[in-house]
Amino acid sequence: xxxxxxxxxxxxxxxxxxxxxxxxxxxxxxxxxxxxxxxxxxxxxxxxxxxxxxxxxxxxxxxxxxxxxxxxxxxxxxxxxxxxxxxxxxxxxxxxxxxxxxxxxxxxxxxxxxxxxxxxxxxxxxxxxxxxxxxxxxxxxxxxxxxxxxxxxxxxxxxxxxxxxxxxxxxxxxxxxxxxxxxxxxxxxxxxxxxxxxx
Amino acid sequence: xxxxxxxxxxxxxxxxxxxxxxxxxxxxxxxxxxxxxxxxxxxxxxxxxxxxxxxxxxxxxxxxxxxxxxxxxxxxxxxxxxxxxxxxxxxxxxxxxxxxxxxxxxxxxxxxxxxxxxxxxxxxxxxxxxxxxxxxxxxxxxxxxxxxxxxxxxxxxxxxxxxxxxxxxxxxxxxxxxxxxxxxxxxxxxxxxxxxxxxxxxxxxxxxxxxxxxxxxxxxxxxxxxxxxxxxxxxxxxxxxxxxxxxxxxxxxxxxxxxxxxxxxxxxxxxxxxxxxxxxxxxxxxxxxxxxxxxxxxxxxxxxxxxxxxxxxxxxxxxxxxxxxxxxxxxxxxxxxxxxxxxxxxxxxxxxxxxxxxxxxxxxxxxxxxxxxxxxxxxxxxxxxxxxxxxxxxxxxxxxxxxxxxxxxxxxxxxxxxxxxxxxxxxxxxxxxxxxxxxxxxxxxxxxxxxxxxxxxxxxxxxxxxxxxxxxxxxxxxxxxxxxxxxxxxxxxxxxxxxxxxxxxxxxxxxxxxxxxxxxxxxxxxxxxxxxxxxxxxxxxxxxxxxxxxxxxxxxxxxxxxxxxxxxxxxxxxxxxxxxxxxxxxxxxxxxxxxxxxxxxxxxxxxxxxxxxxxxxx
Lengths: 199, 618
Prior knowledge:
The complex is a heterodimer. By secondary structure, chain A is of the alpha+beta class. Helix content of chain A is 43%, strand content 20%. Chain A has two domains: 4-134, Longin domain (Beta-Lactamase), CATH 3.30.450.50; 144-193, Single alpha-helices involved in coiled-coils or other helix-helix interfaces (Up-down Bundle). A five-stranded antiparallel β-sheet of chain A has the order 2-1-5-4-3, with helices on both faces. The radius of gyration of chain A is 35 Å and the shape is rod-shaped. Chain B is an alpha/beta fold. In chain B, helix 7 (166-182) crosses helix 8 (193-207), helix 13 (318-337) runs antiparallel to helix 14 and helix 17 (417-431) packs across helix 25 (608-616). The longest helix of chain B has 35 residues, at 345-379. Chains A and B meet through helix 5 and helix 6 of A and helix 11, helix 13, helix 14 and helix 15 of B.
């Protein structure tokens, strides 16, 4: 199933990655495991940011999860942890979007030093919920699925139109019967020309 | 509504427009609101030159001629009728029951006013009520791009039995009208007494037409006039082309075919949907009058060259039509069942664009499948096949000098008189006349079974030349050999010869036309053609040069330079022609070697039933 598990924004400092904001959706995990999974995810995200060069995108497979990370040139980084089915392109588009949004709302000066509670950015949970369905994130994907659906509707409509009027099967039967009945009209070919003699 | 009329070099749409303009002129000359009253025979021909819009634009309603008082609110009533005395009586009755204060009556005679009719009106003392009494000079009605018809069913009967040559005179006027529209016809060939009379009239009338002689040669290169009386066998034989069979079984009137609507699935679907809807709303089905399955609910089909599929099928032998239809249906089936899941969007787009066309093809093919199915049913009747076999034996001159046992049988069984007489006349035509004992035998048997009145009918047939005693020449037998009227190796599908129209018999008239196309023309047939009754004639209409009216010599130079262009030949059948003859001529035109285009003119398109009925009737 397509799921996003966590979204985080980091600041990649000189020595370590600083967690600026994070959110997660752990409903698919059993209740008592959630705490552990959360910690693990945060740890994985931090590690991966520290290991990623600036101005680089990466997608790393980790057991059953995919970690998508994007570290910007200004050292602002976003990490999205999802399952394997979540489309990679959508994940990165989403990260880019979140970082742009973050940049707009939170002053750059706060990034290196502030703690999590000081960052005025609350949009992450909303993003997470919305983009559980990758189609929402990616207009391209949405269009593709809309297109597929339209195509099916179109095909059904065409079938309905074609059914109108005379039943095709009846027409085929009638015409086959017609062509099979063909007998030459000229019957008396065998008859000898017993033509009239001149009196 | 008439684009199909203009596809050939002689653009018959001009004829239609000219006729329409004439009517409009006459109508516009009448002030006030008008209603047009027509008798049934005129409704079809009116539809050949006008469209309904013409009348709705002018708020003119079209009403059928019945003697009762009708609710007409218009100030003027215009009758459009042929000049027949019987119709005048109907008109008088109509006038009397629909007279009201301030109302004016007018008559437009088609094609010519008649003193006889006007006298009749005077006798009945209604002349005072009439304002305008005018003519609509509609002689030839355009039926298709290559066919014009006078729509005079009884032309042959009137001339040969009643000695009334009005139809011939009208034909001549019509020919001059055509030349006025399409130009002078330089070369004329003809055969037969009635044909000669038409030409004599036409020539006389043309002398007054300066325009004919001053201009260049017109669109028509040749005129061939053929008297029905030179070939009485063909109209009596059963036609085997698609159009011919439809006409013989169901009757095509002015390009329209009416069939009981229940044969057509769209009607049934509409009916069942309506029934379902009515049931759903709890209403009474009887309350929907338009969906009652009465016999008189008929579907009207237009049959002319504007319908593409019909144009392909109409002239072919029915056996070829069977195969063609099956092929077309398969083709449509393939297109419809194309696996749509596999198709990409661009392919789907192309398909959707072609969808209306495909649906139309499906509808039209379905209609013709139904019609062909109906004809197929009729063809499988024993009586039809027995009659056909008897016809064919006559046509190959088998046992022709003896009374036919088959006909004797039919008479003994009191079969339909019209058909019995048809077969007798067919035998007579093939034998070129009966020996006295044969003729007497038939007359005796017929009188025994059908009563003495049948002798009157026989007398008409004799006057018409359909029944006669044998004279010296065996014209048909000789011509059958020399002109190959019957062929042994007949081919019905993809034929190479015109004989496919009757399966193995080529209409004599069509063979004559075929020969006229050869370099020597009818010269090569000199001796044989004289076997046929009536004069053989040839004539020229040359261009006048200068004020003194000197004629240009012989063949004008412009004619020889046009040898490479297709000749346009106007073939006029005086007395009627069949769809099979038209199909044969179209076949000749379709053959590249002949380099010819035909325009066919006739007094009426006939079939074996209508021809015989007109001659049998009094």
